[in-house]
Amino acid sequence: MTISKISLVAVLSATVALSACTDPATLGAQTDPKQNTKQGAIFGGLLGAGVGALANSSNPALGAVVGGAVGAGAGALIGNNLDQQAAELRQQLANDGITVTNTGDRLIVSVPNDITFDTDSYTVRPALRSDLEKVAQNLLRYPESNVQIIGHTDSDGDASYNQGLSERRAGAVADVIQAGGVTYNRISTLGQGENDPIASNLNEAGKAANRRVEIVVIPKST
């Protein structure tokens, strides 16, 4: 029993350590196109082992083995799908301003507001609709995911106005995605206003980076 408890602690500790290694801030340096598949398998295996050991109290070692095998397979599948989906999006989207980030457990498609909307407007520019329609078609090819669309602004102007504008812009992008065939029950929207900057609001370049809409693709099994 003591050995099983020690093994379980080791599994859970390794899971925490691996989570630290998948920090999105370090993912941009990866050169292995299958890195997220491998990480998904390892993380899924460790997590499955921990859950399996806890679930099978009469034989935690056996539970860890079974749970680890199931978790590794599920994690590898999610990671592989995200790798493929991200590669397809990068190939299909024509606008260099749109970025696709694979964090290992989700995709973040970031669309700058400056190329999507006119100033103080939440009407999607016609030139960007085709790219958003391509995102919708990609989402249809990968149906086992939910989509969160998040609007962001810089800190210029009134905070309450920025909050409302971010909500309306997220909704406008969601409408285009839905019109492309993605069912609305897969989509949620959120306005963050000026509350979640990714750059400094003290210069124009930082403000431009903060003005964005993010399309976050989250596999349903995560």
TrEMBL record:
Keywords: Cell outer membrane, Membrane, Signal. Its main location: membrane. Residues 1-22 form the signal peptide. It comes from Phaeobacter gallaeciensis. Gene3D superfamilies: OmpA-like domain. It holds the Pfam family Gly-zipper_Omp. It is found in: Cell outer membrane. Coiled coil: none annotated. This is OmpA-like domain-containing protein. It comes from the Bacteria. Residues 104-221 form the OmpA-like domain. GO terms for cellular component: cell outer membrane.
